[in-house]
Amino acid sequence: MNSNKIYNWGILGCGKIAHKFAQDLQSIPNAKLQAVASRNIEKAKDFGDTYQTPTHYGSYIELAKDTKIDIIYIATPHVFHYENTMMCLNEKKAVLCEKPFAMNKAQVSEMIQMAKTQNTFLMEALWTYFLPHYEFVLQTLKGNQLGKIKSLKADFGFASTFDPNNRIFRKELGGGSLLDVGIYPLFAALSMIGIPEKIEASANFGETGIDEDCNMTLHYKNKVSANLFSSVIQKTETKAFIQLEYGSIIINSRFHEPSSVTITKDGDSKLYEFPVVTNGYNYEAIHVQNMLERGNIESTVMSFEKSLNLIELLDNVRKEIKLEY
Ligand SMILES: NC(=O)c1ccc[n+]([C@@H]2O[C@H](COP(=O)([O-])OP(=O)(O)OC[C@H]3O[C@@H](n4cnc5c(N)ncnc54)[C@H](OP(=O)(O)O)[C@@H]3O)[C@@H](O)[C@H]2O)c1
């Protein structure tokens, strides 16, 4: 292990989440934000100056070709994840790409194949998986002291004012609740219970054709079920409630970001807190660096198989609600 190595990061797309990620990179001693790329050079310069970034590009391909860069974080709207990832992998750059990994399973499969062909690291930025409170919940479930899961309820809703220019409402950018935030309750179900046997789903559509909210029920063996909800027009608690044989686990609001956990057993409740001083994106970034340190092209946590399962579930829900892009 070469623990002295400084990892040179590049950010592709200078939007909202890119800022949060750049802030968190600053908390990692052996990470450096070496370059940023925007479709607009002035925007790249402004973004880069905020984080003392030496190199700014006015096109994405220049970043992909920069030989100083070890890892590129892709933070563009969903519909561009596939082409941006393929371009970076083609230049043999490790890629951490925002969720959803791409628009459908066929695209994700091609991205994974490309990572294998190029022998280059690729991971979906499902940051929740790497957060301390979420790891604690998965460990607790594994420990089995509360018995088997009987049901899960998870939601993620926020209230956006309608704006046809906001990517959330733009169908051509992959807008809508399912791909943007519904992915988190679905990820919770997959990571806690696994692949369901049957899915039921319904959605309400807005004037731009995006799903404004989506109700999903996943059915598993032995009458286990998951009731999931996503919305971009109503703020919901954004909690995960897991009912088990001998107690319950609540991932308090908002469950997908740094949070606390309440465990109830035999009528006694205990709150577990996991103070995090960053936005929480440093955990996934450190994991990527650790994977590169080991020479892995695939994450040991958010593996190719897990990303394929997640996109397949999203595709299947989309079939149920008749949402086509
Ligand atoms: N992990 C999380 O917690 C989290 C949170 C929010 C979002 N996300 C994911 O991150 C991605 C970006 O979300 P965001 O909220 O940061 O979006 P955003 O603020 O709209 O930023 C997206 C950026 O993509 C670039 N872009 C390239 N082509 C574009 C086009 N035709 N139209 C608009 N932008 C274009 C733009 O950067 P330039 O102008 O610099 O080229 C833009 O600033 C989404 O896939 C979303 O699911 C993840």
Automatic annotation (TrEMBL):
Residues 8-123 form the Gfo/Idh/MocA-like oxidoreductase N-terminal domain. Keywords: Oxidoreductase. The keyword NAD does not apply. Signal peptide: none annotated. SUPFAM superfamilies: Glyceraldehyde-3-phosphate dehydrogenase-like, C-terminal domain, NAD(P)-binding Rossmann-fold domains. The keyword Transferase does not apply. Gene3D superfamilies: Dihydrodipicolinate Reductase, domain 2, NAD(P)-binding Rossmann-like Domain. Residues 139-248 form the GFO/IDH/MocA-like oxidoreductase domain. It comes from the Bacteria. Belongs to the Gfo/Idh/MocA family. This is Gfo/Idh/MocA family oxidoreductase.
